[in-house]
Amino acid sequence: MSKIVFMAGTRPEAIKLAPVVRYFKENTSNHEIKLCSSGQHKEMLAQALQDFELSPDLDLEVMTPGQTLSSLSSKLFTAVDTMLNAENPDWIIVQGDTTTVMIASLCAFYRGVKVGHVEAGLRSFDRLRPFPEEIDRRVAGLVADMHFAPTHGARNSLLQEPEACQRDPGPLPGSCSHHSAAIQELCKAHGVLHPDIDGLRRYPGRGAQPWQAGTCHA
After folding, report:
1. Mean pLDDT (whole number) for 53-67
2. Do the Cβ atoms of 150 and 176 come closer than 8 Å?
3. What are the contacts of 211-215 at 24+ separation with CB within 8 A?
């Protein structure tokens, strides 16, 4: 039996990894699945996971108010390495472009643990925009053993990078945000929906117009 650790540190990571974690937990018997919270954004992460009826199996608790990226990174290096030593997983799955993603990928690489990168291949080709996310996702891309690109453009970006294209460019699973939205629709169909989302759907100004969901990063 192989062991897979899903790593999440922020609310976006939790939202996008939730459908993947749920699928593995509910549909696989030949894998040991663990969800690890780095604690980078502890409260917001917990809230997002709760919406999907998930809770971390492991919590690294690195959150400290006002800490710098360097301080966060140093704590993550120690905490993630200690976790990997204790759990000895076959794979670690990361999502996106946060500090948690970069450090977890590097720690796994150092220990010979395979890395799967969800939402891989997104590039601005400007290392300062977004900062520090552009560097975070490039580093994860350098060490990942399998890339899961959300779009054809992202996959093409990976194929143009010598280090990344030497390994499996992976399938094209699409956006995990869409899968998360689909889960919320399924929950609604069964009468189970987070009250904040339900309130938004019933907002009087909506009328008969359809909703469109989007994400932004300022």
Report:
1. 91
2. yes
3. 213/177, 213/181, 215/12, 215/177
Give the highest mean pLDDT range of 13-27, 48-62, 83-97, 162-176. 83-97
For residue 78 the two structure tokens come to: 């120690």
Asked if residues 101 and 94 have their Cβ atoms less than 8 Å apart, the reply is yes
Sheet holding 146-148, edge to edge: 58-59, 31-37, 2-8, 91-95, 114-118, 146-148
In sequence order, the 6+-apart residues with CB closer than 8 A to the CB of 180 are 15, 16, 18, 19, 52
- As beta bridge partners, residue 32 has 3
pLDDT digits (tens, 9 = 90+) for 188-212: 444 444 545 555 555 555 555 666 6
Contact 103, 143 (CB under 8 A): no
Please give the average per-residue pLDDT across 96-124, as a whole number.
95
R_g of the chain computed on alpha carbons: 18
**Could you give phi then psi for residue 128, rounded to 5 degrees?**
-105, -5
Say what the pTM is. 0.80
In this prediction, residues 141-160 reach a mean pLDDT of 89
Instruction: For residue 130, say if its preceding peptide bond is cis, omega within 30 degrees of 0.
Output: yes
Mind giving me the DSSP string for 116-150? EEETTT---S-TTSSTTHHHHHHHHHHH-SEEE-S
Sequence-distant (6+) residues with CB within 8 A of 6 are: 17, 20, 21, 24, 33, 34, 35, 36, 92, 93
